Amino acid sequence: MNNNEVAVNTSIEDIYGDNPLITQLPPILDTKSVIKHLRGKLKFLPKQRFYAQQERIHLIAQLPHDFFQPLTKHLSLEQKISIMIRQGYVSRNITNGDRNRHLHAAFQQLEPSNESSYRYAPPESTATSMSIIGCSGSGKTTTMNKILRYYPQVIEHRELGLKQIVYLKIDCPHD
């Protein structure tokens, strides 16, 4: 084990507490798992070596769609997305009552008897954001799609009677 590796037995609860919006997410991936998840698989059959030249050219044209070699920047982006998704739920723990207390206090402030005061302490924001900027065709959308494919877009919490939207992906084309 080198200096960059630390062997620690932790669970998601040790890091984020007992927040069902976080604990129901897929596990945090280690580097090898991220590479395995992101890497594209080439679809090659040995018999394809004997295809006619024109058919092999079509197979070669498919390579950019099938092959993806994760680079350090892709691993870093996956880690940032993983952190952003989980951190976004830290202040939204529906089991400890903080969110309900905040909503109740806000509602109390809006009742007619308290019309003169609409101030209440906003919850501490745990929201983060980032921009991904790069040349057209450099793999920004492909990488994001591969990373987000690991996460379910919606998680249903039947015991809590709610549906959790894990992420919303909005593409912003130049036009």
Describe the structure.
The chain is mainly α and 175 residues long. 39% of the residues lie in helices and 5% in strands. The protein is built from seven helices and two strands. Strands 1-2 form a two-stranded antiparallel sheet. A hairpin with a 4-residue loop joins strand 1 and strand 2. The longest helix is centred in the middle third of the chain and has 16 residues. The protein is elongated. The N terminus is likely disordered.
List the keywords:
single chain; 175 residues; mainly alpha; two-stranded antiparallel ribbon; 5% strand; elongated; P-loop_NTPase; ATP-binding; ATP binding; ATP-binding protein
Q: What is the CA-based Rg, rounded?
A: 23 Å
Taking the sheet with the most strands, its summary is: 2 strands, antiparallel
Helix share bin: 25-40%
Note the beta-strand portion: under 5%
Number of helices: 7
Shape summary: elongated
What is the averaged pLDDT score?
82
Characterize the quaternary organization of these chains.
Answer: single chain
**Counted beta strands:** 2
**Any low-confidence stretches, pLDDT <50, length ≥5?**
1-9
Which sequence of strands runs across the widest sheet? 1-2
Series of secondary-structure elements, N-terminal to C-terminal: HHHHHHHEE
Amino- and carboxy-terminal Cα gap: 50 Å
The SS-based structural class is mainly alpha
